Structure formats: structure tokens, C-alpha cells
Amino acid sequence: MSMNLEEKTWPQVEEYLKSKKSIIVPVGSTEQHGPTGLIGIDYLSAWEIARAVGAKTNTLVAPPLCFGMAVHHMAFPGTITLSPATYVQVITEIIQSLTQHGFEKITFINGHGGNIAPLTTAFCQAKQGRETCNLQLINWWHLPEVTAHEKTIYGDQNGFHATCGEISVTMFTHPEAYSKIPKMTFEPTKDRPHWPMAPFEFRQTFPDGRMGSNPALSSEEHGKVLFKLAVDSICQKLE
Amino acid sequence: MSMNLEEKTWPQVEEYLKSKKSIIVPVGSTEQHGPTGLIGIDYLSAWEIARAVGAKTNTLVAPPLCFGMAVHHMAFPGTITLSPATYVQVITEIIQSLTQHGFEKITFINGHGGNIAPLTTAFCQAKQGRETCNLQLINWWHLPEVTAHEKTIYGDQNGFHATCGEISVTMFTHPEAYSKIPKMTFEPTKDRPHWPMAPFEFRQTFPDGRMGSNPALSSEEHGKVLFKLAVDSICQKLE
Amino acid sequence: MSMNLEEKTWPQVEEYLKSKKSIIVPVGSTEQHGPTGLIGIDYLSAWEIARAVGAKTNTLVAPPLCFGMAVHHMAFPGTITLSPATYVQVITEIIQSLTQHGFEKITFINGHGGNIAPLTTAFCQAKQGRETCNLQLINWWHLPEVTAHEKTIYGDQNGFHATCGEISVTMFTHPEAYSKIPKMTFEPTKDRPHWPMAPFEFRQTFPDGRMGSNPALSSEEHGKVLFKLAVDSICQKLE
Amino acid sequence: MSMNLEEKTWPQVEEYLKSKKSIIVPVGSTEQHGPTGLIGIDYLSAWEIARAVGAKTNTLVAPPLCFGMAVHHMAFPGTITLSPATYVQVITEIIQSLTQHGFEKITFINGHGGNIAPLTTAFCQAKQGRETCNLQLINWWHLPEVTAHEKTIYGDQNGFHATCGEISVTMFTHPEAYSKIPKMTFEPTKDRPHWPMAPFEFRQTFPDGRMGSNPALSSEEHGKVLFKLAVDSICQKLE
Amino acid sequence: MSMNLEEKTWPQVEEYLKSKKSIIVPVGSTEQHGPTGLIGIDYLSAWEIARAVGAKTNTLVAPPLCFGMAVHHMAFPGTITLSPATYVQVITEIIQSLTQHGFEKITFINGHGGNIAPLTTAFCQAKQGRETCNLQLINWWHLPEVTAHEKTIYGDQNGFHATCGEISVTMFTHPEAYSKIPKMTFEPTKDRPHWPMAPFEFRQTFPDGRMGSNPALSSEEHGKVLFKLAVDSICQKLE
Amino acid sequence: MSMNLEEKTWPQVEEYLKSKKSIIVPVGSTEQHGPTGLIGIDYLSAWEIARAVGAKTNTLVAPPLCFGMAVHHMAFPGTITLSPATYVQVITEIIQSLTQHGFEKITFINGHGGNIAPLTTAFCQAKQGRETCNLQLINWWHLPEVTAHEKTIYGDQNGFHATCGEISVTMFTHPEAYSKIPKMTFEPTKDRPHWPMAPFEFRQTFPDGRMGSNPALSSEEHGKVLFKLAVDSICQKLE
């Protein structure tokens, strides 16, 4: 049964809170993912995984925050970014809204590496007062079950951005979108000289947007397995 | 064909920008909508309408900003709000991201009355410099075609929040969610003493969250008509 | 008798608050008003109307906030603007100061269209907590009595900025200032292509600062009537 | 001839800027001034002095910023304060507006001690870039001519807030307002234990709002002399 | 030879920049470190290590930022914290100052875990524009050489806060301070229930301020070795 | 005995607070001080003086804030500045941290003129609530004992920046650093045209960074005397 907050009424949430204080918030980004990856990969993957986890564990799932901290991708059209400071503030206020209603465990399922530092910063910002809330950050692509399997199937070609893994996961969840993207072959990319990079540095170094990945290896079948590994791993963590 | 930004690649967006500079951004809220309305009504309705408009007019549609300025609904569990000042900043940065890529016409399709003032404020904030961008705000429930039809079918029972119209539209777009919500009958509500109201004032005055509406009148069939009226009206505006 | 806060002592205000919790705050702008309109029209008109209303209704009137959100007029010398975000914050703090003293009804009499969105945003900002204060925004030039009379005397030449009506009102309140401004005749202006406009766009489109108005029609006599209509209308609203 | 910016048109300002780059901005506060002093003393005195200086030196005078940094007076009804941080931002944006039009010398005539630190802070904030503007702060009550004369007529009873001098100046400029305030006699006040004081500390220490002054000594005649001393002194500084 | 920026003149820095664009910034915190650890451990250790690295590599070392993001330690007297948002802003402005002078490689040597997320957030904030600067974060206690040696000498008693290692390092650099602190023995601490923790949660869970460490194992001799390991490791990274 | 907060443990601070509520915070800047003055003069002098005062009066001394409001020195390499607004916020949060622990008297010993306005602004910011804390600002170079002695030994050649006095004080506290700086002779500098100055204006007017000083007159012996005068004077104030 759907546990999506947006499909509930407020009395249903009031009822839920009588027995359970936990909620999942999917966060991602709207940013370039190389020549063959969807711009929405980061929030789409986090959202789909969050919904599957919510359904299996009977945990409410908030709507996604579709925009993230993607400053370094701004030299590629289609990327939308919040500044780091604003992102910290938005996450802080989402937490404050939820704790005000009595939620005591908020699990952020995150699909974008650039969000990690501002998310963690926001958690500290939100914990300055007397809130007793447990804040948890799960970066699905960092889960050991996921990285181990990616290692097996992609070796050292998974990369750091527009990875084989995240493209596979969204091939599984959004096959129709990928059906309109032509197949390509890829050369290896340069190494990154330092991090973080300014937008123009990023595009100079990684002209097609990939960082070390070979997305030609991605497939819907891989995605199906990785998706299940992520969902199962998170379900275990939540219990 | 889908025109959803999240399902495109960045080279597809780069190509699009060669011939068209227009994009739609759906914005809404995650907030209580009375005992029988979905918490996600405002962003779900805006998003669905935006996608239909995008498909019909071949205009890109950004992912939705699911969280809005819903301070006054915070006494009802499930509501998530950004502060007005933060909302202004988020919208400003979304606009700046898009103008930086060369978009010159940004149409916000909005599903929530509380967003109007901060959206307009953000537009002014974004136009302080030399951007030549055309910023347009369309509140779908304010479209004359929509309000005229609502008047015909609901008379003076459409209300101001959790309206018959917006509930009908989401009955049409999300029938499965409504199938789990029990039917109810409703008494008239009090008048609002002043506006805006603090969260506790709102709940004291409107204990079930409705403002003047009789959602028992809503139906999927109404929603289908209203949805089409909104989409057609916006398509005309965009051309 | 003068009800101007700046001409009172604090014990007089303390006494006043024992029987009445209402105060008026005039807000406007310092910005160009075409070749023959005063730069101070927006705050001067709001202030004069506020003082007359205060005197007739025995309601305290705060000093005016002379600076508003006038970003779009910044290509004309003499305009002074606050950024939208700062304006929101200033209004929020004025409200907080007044509610802290026990004022429960704060009526902003506004003379500038550009202030409406940030004023409304500030009202929401101020109502995030437990204040029970009634916040009311009255845009004097939007009052039905005023617009109806303007329609009668100016037809479709009243315009949207540097309007015949607001110039007339300040001709009535500040005749000596107008005596130093040479009379002119005016051509129709272009339509505005979109809104809001960046400063340079505004001046390109409206090179003399007017938007659709024919200020040659303005007169002190008109101003006297419009002023009285506005004052009487607001007095009724306050009671 | 009036040099008030609010009574000019933008072409008049454009003309003025061809030969002169100087403008005066009066700033003050809306705050308690003891049992017999006007709440508006600080901005009224600064504004009247500024207008007189402007008229004598043919220098434009902006409208006043009527609200200042008056946090410490907030335990007395009628006081309206901006937070220090907001005040800094407002002054910064007023400066930026003026330098954008080509003003190169901005003289703030100030009537409130609490504004000095945030004004100076704002000056530094505004000078971070490449503006060549000369920013000048004149606290009229600190002018040596003024303090010397106050010493002569009030000895050690002038005080630090609600001073004999500033009350006298506004008795001269606003006699009608003082005609409605009953005469009183005053006891000496306590010394201030430290500075700055929180609102409640201030009222505990100075229960009627005065700090060391004996306003019974104030008179319209004194005010006339002090006003002239201030105006003449500032005129000399400007030339 | 000392490479401390504070002991240089500006012409010496100008000269330095002709041949080298690198600078080290030590950052730490002022916060409780259990019953026997110095409040200054985090900035003292980072500063001393930074100075030694600077001297060995002829790299300039900025003065330390002694205050960090220590919200969670605020229930212990002596802790001074910046809010996460302010910390992000301070680091951003330090970077902007340095890049403005032409520094192209800025290495932050950090002594406090709580700083990592806001430091990383600030790096992204600083890289929004066209700066080509290489920003590097080195958490000295995370260096593999350091953690390996700590594992050898402390096993699983090094802990997560007020660790044996950081206390040892400052025993080596500040023996005189430790000579005034009585020796103690320690019980194991509880596990942390979640992270981050609010100040009151932290003190309830860890009443003496330690997190899993047994500082009785610390010694000046250990500190000497760990200090050298950290310095050598960082020197290698810089070259 | 050392009273440096960074060399204490939290139980020592807890014990201290049982009998004394006072703490000293040294603040300065990292900025150019002419061709022969150390970049760290402002914080080094304030810190050394603070430590001596702390030791003599048994008052805790916090670590220094080494970075100040030095915008106007940014055209000289090695200067690091916080923006005025950020500096206000940092000081506010340091005060809030200390009052939260029960400190009731916080004395800032300051070594930099540019900090005075934002420090005072921050004090007001911190006193908006119910804190009873006594906040005191001591600018050591403004102490009458110090300025009188400087007048005697330097006449009118002490200057306003990179003064003979502050260079002498740091020659006394940091002789080794000065031993590496070549001796120079100096021409008089121009007068400053206005204040504050933008960075480029400052360097144009004062190309070597001095403002009216002749640092060739400075000596370690002078510094020893001035240091003692400052310390003794502050000790008296604190008692």
C-alpha cells in the first residue's frame, strides 16, 4: 500500500503518528548526468527507492526535494542548483516542520553526492535546540551491498558521476525515458585535478559531464538488481 | 511526447535551447487539504497540469518544487513549510539557474495561494540585474475558464481552501489515492476573521482544515473537465 | 486632533493601548513618477491619507516607511530602493515591534504597487508564531471608490504608474511642489511586454517613466475628491 | 527653495546631478523620549535640520529613515525598532541606490545615538567594492557648537537620552505637539550600570525613560538657538 | 624559519606570491574535551601541526580560526560555537580574501570533526564563480598513518571525542597545561544513539564529555610520535 | 598562572563559574601594517595584553578571533577580512555561547579600529533578549594612559594605521619576527580624503599601507612601556 505523504489526508497522518514517529524524505538533484543519463537521476532514484522502502516498512514518505546542491554542474544546460547556504536552510526548515508535528525519526534517502555536506550541516543546524529527533542520512549509492555489486559488474568503470549504477537504476525505473536516448560508446575521462570544482573547471575537465564512468555498461537488468539491493539494505537499517 | 526535464539528457536540452527559450516550472505545497483532500494536492495538480501543457506545446517542464509557503497550515500534521523568506530565495535561485543556461521565458504554474506573494517577491528579486527573462505566474485555479466552471457546478460552496475544484482535479489525476479515503458530509465553516492567520488561529477557526468548501461535491468527472479547461487555457497563454 | 505617533509621548501611547489596540502604518516608496510627478508620491499620498484617517477615527498613525521595493525604477535618478528580501525583513520587524507593545490590529496604508507582494510576504513571515495580531493591507489607489471615480474622470488614460490619480492627490496635498514643475503634454506609452521588468528594460520601454498615463489630465481639484474618497473608504473599513 | 528629493521629479534630479553629486539623508528613530519628549524626536530633529541645511546649501535631501536601531527602548510602548543587522542592510541599500545614480557624496544627518555603530558598519559594507563615494556621518547633537551651548545652559543636566537639547529643538520645530504634553518636574536618574542594556534592564534602571536629563529645563527658545547652531555648523562642514 | 602569516609584512607576502600560490589555514574549535582534555585541543593541535608543516615545506600558514561548529558540546561550560550557517559564511569569506590576493591552493588543516560538513559546504559556496583555486581539507586525525598508529597503541579505546590521540598530541605540544590537570581513571561510555545530537542529548548520554575514549592511556610520548606522523604525512600530500 | 580558556578543562571552567562570571575575549585582525609592521599586529597585541590582564586578575581569557573587519586593507596581499555583516554575526554568537554558560561580564580587548563599529553593533544584537550580561569593549590603543605616552614619545608621528605604538608593542612581544624585517625610513603620508575608503582608494592614497605614521620611531623598549601601561589600565578597569 502506498505510504506517500502526498496521497494521505491530514487525519490519516494524525492517526499514523499515534503509533509511529518515523518518516522518509527523498532528496536528490536536477543536474546533467553525461550524454546518456537523465537529468533527474538523483531525485528519481532516491524517490523510487524511498517509495519502495516506505511500502515495505509501512513508513511515510514525503515528496522529494528535486533540487539540490549542484553548483559544479552549472556549465551544463538543464542543471538547476540551490546555493549551498540556501540548501542548508531548506533542509533545516523541512526538519523543523516535521519535528513540530511529532516526527522523531527522519531518514533522508539521498541520491546526490553534492548534497552530503549541506545535508549534514543542516542536521547540525536543526539540532541546536531541544529537538530530540533522530536524523539519519542514507546515500543509497554508498550502501555496501550496492557498491560491492557495482564493483563486480563494472570493475573500475563505474565512475564518480553519471555512474553505471545510477544510470542502470533509472533504466529500470524509467525505461521509456531511456528508449529515446541513442546508445553511445565512451572514452575514459581525465582525473579530477581537485575538488570541489567551479562550473567552468568541471566542463573543461569533463567535457561531456561524465567523471570516470562508462555508461555503455549500464542496463535495465543491472538496475533491477541494484534497486532491490538498495531497498533491502535500507529496510534492514530502518528496523 | 514527454517534455519533462528530468527525463532528458543535457545534450537534448542544449539542442532544445537552439530553437526555444521557454520552460515551465510547477510549484505547489505539501499541506493539509481538509479531511478528504490529499496533502499533495497543490503540487500534484500543478505538476500534472504543467506536464500536459508541456506535452501539448512542446515546452520543457522542470521537476516540481513540492514544498511551498504553508506556514498557516502548520497546526495540521503532514504539512511541510518553507518560511516565506526561504521560499523567496529558493525561487530566485531556480530562476537564476535557468537564465544562466539561456532560458528567456519561465512560466511558473502554481497550485497554492500562499505562494503567490513570495513568488512575486522572488520575481522582483531575480530582476534586479540585467536578466532579460520574461517571468510569468499562472495560478491555475484563478484562470477565468476554471473559476467560471466551478461557479456553475459548485455555486458558493467551492470555498477558499481544500476547494471542490482542486479536490476534483486530483480525483481525476490520482483516483487510486482517493479510493482509500472515506466519504464524508460537511457543515459550513466559519468566516475567516482576518488574513494571514497564525497556525493556531487557523486551526481554532477551521478545525478540520477546510475554508468554506464542501468537498462532498467533488468528483473525478468534474476534475476531468476542470483539468482540461486549465490545460487549454494555459496552452493558449503560452502561444 | 493629531494622532501621529511621532508627536506622542510613551505614556500617552501606554494610555491609548488601555482602550484601543489599533495602529496605522503608512508605507510607500521614493521613486520616479514620470516627468511631472513627484518622486515622493507613493509615501506622501499614503502618509497624508493615513493621517487624515487617523485623525477622523482616533487611531494612532506611525511614521511612514518612505523607502519601498522599487527595483524596476532604478534606471531613473532619484529612485531609492530596498531589495525585496530586505523590505520583507523591515516590515516584519515593524510588525514585531508593534505586537510586542500589545497592538492587535495593524493597518498598512500603502501607496506603491511594488510593495504589495513583499508586504504580503512579510505578513506571513510575522504570523509564523503565536501573535494574534490582525494585519491588514490597504492599497489606497485600489479602493473601489477611488478606481470608479478615476475611471469616470480619466477613462483609459489613468495608467499604471505615475497615474493621473496619484499625481492629482499629491497636487492637492503638495501644491507648492507642483507649482515648480512645468506643464507638459504626453504621447501614449508602449504596452509592457512582461512583468516584472529589470531596470534597464523598464527605461527602454518607458523612456520617460510613465506607464500608460496622461498626467496632463491631473488636477488639484481631482486630487481633493480622490483624497476624500480614499479617506472615507478607509475610515469605513476601520470601523 | 525646497531641496527635498520627494518634491522633485526625476528629470530635475538628472539635471541636478550634472553639476552636483551631493545628497543628504536624514536618519533617526521612533522611540520613547521620557515622559515629556516626543516619540519622533530623533527623526524629526534630523529631518528638520537636514531640510534647513539643504535649503541653505542647495543640496538635495532624501526622505528620512524614520526607524532606527532602538532595541534598548523596546520596553516602552510606541518604540519601533529594526534589528541591528537589518538596519545595517537598509543603510547599505540606500547608499547603493544613490551611488548607482552617480551621487558621490552622501551625508547622513543622524538624530539617534543607537544608529552610530550600525551606520558606520553599513558604510564599511557599502565600501567593499569599487564605489568611490564619500560617506559622511554627522550626529547633530555631537557637534561641538551644540554641545558647548548645551553645557552653558544645562550644565550637567542635559543627560544622555531624552536630553534637554533634543527636546528643546523639537519644541522649536513642533510647538503644537508639545502644547498637549503636561509640564512635569523630574528627579535625577540612576547611573547606567553598563552599556548596551537589554530592554528590560533599561526600564528597570530608567523607569520613566530618561537617562540623566532634566527635560523641565527645555524650552522653545533654547531649541531655536540650538537648531541654528546645528544647521550653521553642518553647512560649514558641507562647504 | 617561521612561515606564519601573522609574523610577515605585506611586502613579504607579495614577494612570496611571485613564486608560490599556496597557503595553509588551521581550523579547529573551542570546546569541551572530557574531564582531562584541554578545551583548545582542536585548534591547538591543528595550529601546531600546520606551523610545523609550513616550516618544513616553506608554505605560509594563516592564523587559526579558533572557533568552530561545536553546537553539540554547548551543554558543557567553556564551549564556544558558531552556528553551522555562520561557520560556512566565515570560511567562505576567508577563502575569498585569499583568492583575491592570488592564492591558488588553500589547504585547511582541521582538528575538529564537527567542522567537516560546514567546511565542505563552504568550499562549494566559494566555488560558485570563476575562482580557479584548489581547496583541500586535511583532517589530521583521519590521516591513515595516524589512525593506524592509534589503533596499535590504543586498540578500541581511542574513542570518537576527547580521543587518546588528540589528547596525547596536545600533551606533547602543551605539557605545562596538562601538568595542572589531575590524573583520572575512566569507565567505558555508552554508545551514541544517533547523530547529530542536541546539546542536552549529548550531555545526558556522555555526562563527562568523552565519547568512547579512555584518556588515561594518553601520554606526551605518544603525542610526539603522532604529531610527527601527521606532519610528515601532510608534508607529503603538499608536495 | 595561565588563565587561558584553551588550556583549561570544562570541569575547571565549571568550578571557575561558581565564584566568578567574567571572561575576556581578545579580538583583532589579520591585515597589512605597512612595510615594516606584522600582518598579525592587531590580534597579537590584543591577545598578549589580554593574557597578561587575565593572569594578573585571575580572569579567564578566550582564544582570539584572529580575523576582523579589514575590508579597506584588501588591496594589500596577506589581509584576510570578514564582511561587516558576518563579523557582527560571529561576535553575536560568541557572546551567546558565553552567556549560555552563565558568564555575566564579557570584556572584549580589541586591537583593530575597524572592528569597533561592528563590535558595538553585535553587542546591541546580542542584547535584544533577556540576557543580563555586561558587555564591555576596550580598545587598548585608545586607553588614555597609552595615548598620552605615545604623544610624549612620538608627537604627531604616531599615525592612524601601522602606528608607532602598535608596532612597538609587538616588537616587545614578538622580537624574533621583527628581527627578519629590514629597517626603513619613511616619508609623511597624504591625508585621508574621506572615511571609510574602498580597498583601491586606500592603496591609491596610502601606497605603502601606513596612515600618517613613522614606524622608524618604534622600538622594543617603547613597546615594553606601552604594553605595561595598557595592561595596568585594563586591570584597573576590570576591578
Q: Write down the overall geometry of chain A.
A: globular
Order of helices and strands of chain A: HEHEHEHEHHHHH
What order do the strands of the largest sheet of chain A run in, or round the barrel if closed? 2-1-3-4
Give the structural class of chain A.
alpha/beta
Largest sheet of chain A: 4 strands, parallel
What is the total tally of β strands of chain A? 4
Distance between the termini of chain A: 18 Å
Work out the strand percent of chain A.
5-15%
pLDDT < 50 runs, ≥5 residues of chain A: none
Count helical runs of chain A.
9
Query: Helicity level of chain A, as a percent range?
Result: 40-55%
> How confident overall, as mean pLDDT of chain A?
97
Rg over CA atoms of chain A: 18 Å
Oligomer: homohexamer
Please describe what this structure looks like.
- Six copies of one chain form a homohexamer.
- By secondary structure, the first copy, chain A, is an alpha/beta fold.
- Chain A is 44% helix and 8% strand.
- Chain A contains nine helices and four strands, in the order H-E-H-E-H-E-H-E-H-H-H-H-H.
- A four-stranded parallel sheet of chain A has the order 2-1-3-4, sandwiched between helices.
- The longest helix of chain A has 19 residues, at 220-238.
- Chains in contact: A-B, A-E, B-C, C-D, D-F, E-F.
- Chains A and B meet through helix 1 and helix 3 of A and helix 1 and helix 3 of B.
